Amino acid sequence: MPLASYQTSVPVVVDDAKCIADKGCTVCVDVCPLDVLRISDMSGKAYMAYDECWYCMPCEADCPTGAVTVNIPYLLR
Amino acid sequence: MALDQIVDGLSEVSCDVLVIGGGTAGPMAALKAKLKNPKANVVLLEKANVKRSGAISMGMDGLNNAVIPGYATPEQYTKEITIANDGIVDQKAVYKYAQNCYKIIEELDSFGIRFLKNENGDYAVKKVHHIGTYVLPMPNGETVKKALYRQLRRARILISNRYMATRLLKSSDGRIAGAISVNTRTAEILVIKAKAVILCMGAAGRLGLPTSGYMFGTYENAANSGDGYAMAYHAGAALANLECYQINPLIKDYNGPACAYVAGPFGAFTANNEGSRFIECDYWSGQMMLEFYNELLSGKGPVFLQLKHLHPDTISEIESTLHKVERPTRGLFQQGRGVDYRNESIEMHISEIGFCSGHSASGVFVDDNARTTVPGLYAAGDMASVPHNYMLGAFTNGSVAGIDAMEFADSHDFAEFDAADVANERDRVLAPTKREDGIPPNQVEYKTRRLVNDYLQPPKVTRKYELGMRRLAETREDMQEHMIARNAHELLRALEVQSIMDCADMAVHASLYREESRWGLYHWRTDFPEKDNENWFCHTLLSKQNGKMTSEKRAVEPYVVPIADDEKDLYDKQRIRATA
């Protein structure tokens, strides 16, 4: 059965200018209970790789530079 | 390297006590086990990261069941919980909790977790329950996880994050021998031999589908997919009263607590669209949830948490708790909708179904020492059968489990398991990664949970349950034969779906077994609408016997605290009478 991917707007947004993942920081990726954040191979910055969010906030609360913003997922906003 | 690339690997470690789940009960269990025997090895295994995992990821806004001398007695609390559960309670475990929880509060206080105190320095306990006074606010409740983590590091607990346990290992004589787990980012297998194992894996909170349709917008932490319930089942442990579902009142769409326990003591209340109260008491019981459900469906819905009548300073105080602790995005959600508590009430709804003893009574059967029916296997927190546990119950019973498990480990050697069990489990776990073509886990999960909503949500209708069972069996076949996982993260989700499917099957089986209605909305069977104490004043235990799901009755243990006849129905009279 062929697979298709479909578009989804993700709730967690990372400000690349503030993110220091390229310096070795992995805090937001480490603390996420659903394990949905990753560091991009291309930009070296954190991003939401999987839209499976409990909008719980550890990524935003624990980010040392204030780069992460958690929004309410669109479907329940 | 491709995202979450699968790596082939298998390693084995051993420890004295293995604690699975690093949320609330787990860290306390690990800590107490280690303090009991500092020379022993204690491993704390966690699917996410202990720093921020579990129901209290962002802390908790208060203790809902604190039995504090001067405010409440263990006898009174035991009585209240017994009545709130329609009498189906083994009181020994509840009574033991009630006796021990104050010590745990003091201990948490010594960890730096602060509780609300009045001007005299006494704990400022509030009344929410029908009879007694047990609610203690935690103004800096956001610090809970950090404080616990500090204690774990200090005690040198070995923490393994991002390992999902999938099955328990047992010896041929039925004793626990360890667990098999898989790394959630590489799919490497880790076998952990242990003399005793404590399951602290949380609720089955991803069972029903939230009305928003967003799969992870669950009431419980969405990581709590019922893995502990499924693992205990496959290990042959008994599970108690699974038909007593968990259903919660919540902020509509947001799907988190509104939260009447926080706002109620300040004067907020649950109201219908006429602004009138319709329930006597905001403490969650099946009967209260039934009144809530009825009000939503009557012409008097929606239901609201009303606090606009309060003084602005009071509202600010409530707001600062609701928007800072437990589910801090509540503020963002209300802001997005333009809701200001000062002039608008909070629209509420009820949650999807789940299993969670923390709020109701469905869990892996344990005695007052947190022992399951499998020797060497323990359970605590939201997944163990001690009813209405909440956070303090998870800490207190986690402590009981940790101490007893270490005593067990000290007096037993490792049990031997069959190497074939590991090989078979490895094949089962990795099967979705071996297929080239098939159905992704998110579709199998959506369908399973949609079926749970369509067929399993109360009111429970036998004919619907029979149809649901068939549809779930068809989806299970798809899951077992056709589900694919293209990377380690998808494999994590694929394994979680299997836990969800097991829980759905258990929900059906347990619900069809109890041929009466009990616990209000939680087990409302239209074909058996009455409570039948003559035949069903008992627990039901579900277990796997000779590979088959089986249910049986178990007598309620004689009460430690007697309940007078005129007290038994105090929680039945939840609806406010029209002629007051």
User: The biggest beta sheet of chain B, please?
Assistant: 7 strands, mixed
* Low-confidence runs of chain A: none
Helix content of chain B: 25-40%
Oligomer: heterodimer
Report the radius of gyration of chain B as a whole number of Å: 23 Å
Q: Assign the CATH class of the domain at 16-65 in chain A.
A: Alpha Beta
The share of residues in extended strands of chain A comes to: 15-25%
Name the chain pair whose interface involves the most residues.
Answer: A-B, 28 and 43 residues
The number of helical segments of chain A is 2
- What CATH calls the topology of the domain at 16-65 in chain A is Alpha-Beta Plaits
Largest sheet of chain A: 2 strands, antiparallel
SSE-based structural type of chain A: alpha+beta
**C-alpha Rg of chain A (nearest Å):** 13 Å
Taken from the alpha-carbon principal axes, the silhouette of chain A is globular
Average the pLDDT over all residues of chain B and give the rounded result.
95
Percent in strands of chain B: 15-25%
For the record, the CATH architecture of the domain at 16-65 in chain A stands as 2-Layer Sandwich
Instruction: Calculate the mean pLDDT score of chain A and round it.
Output: 96
How does this model look, in words?
Chain A: InterPro entries: 4Fe4S_Fe-S-bd, 4Fe4S_Fe_S_CS. The complex is a heterodimer of chains A (77) and B (580). Chain A contains 2 helices and 4 strands. Chain A is globular and about 40 Å long. In chain A, a hairpin with a 6-residue loop joins strand 2 (37-39) and strand 3. In chain A, the strands form 2 sheets. Chain A has a two-stranded antiparallel sheet with strand order 1-4. Chain A has a two-stranded antiparallel sheet with strand order 2-3. Chain A has helices spanning 27-31, 58-62, and strands at 12-14, 37-39, 46-48, 68-70. Chain B is globular. In chain B, the strands form 4 sheets. In chain B, strands 1, 2, 5, 6, 7, 8 and 15 form a 7-stranded mixed beta sheet that branches. In chain B, helix 11 packs across helix 14 (488-513). Chain B is α+β, with helices and mostly antiparallel strands. In chain B, a hairpin with a 2-residue loop joins strand 16 (538-545) and strand 17 (548-555). Chain B has helices at residues 25-36, 74-84, 91-110, 144-154, 227-234, 260-263, 286-297, 312-322, 329-336, 390-410, 419-434, 441-456, 462-482, 488-513, 533-536; strands spanning 10-20, 42-46, 62-63, 136-137, 158-161, 163-170, 176-183, 189-199, 239-240, 249-251, 269-271, 303-306, 346-350, 363-364, 377-379, 538-545, 548-555. The mean pLDDT of chain B is 95. Chains A and B meet through helix 2 of A and helix 9 and helix 14 of B.
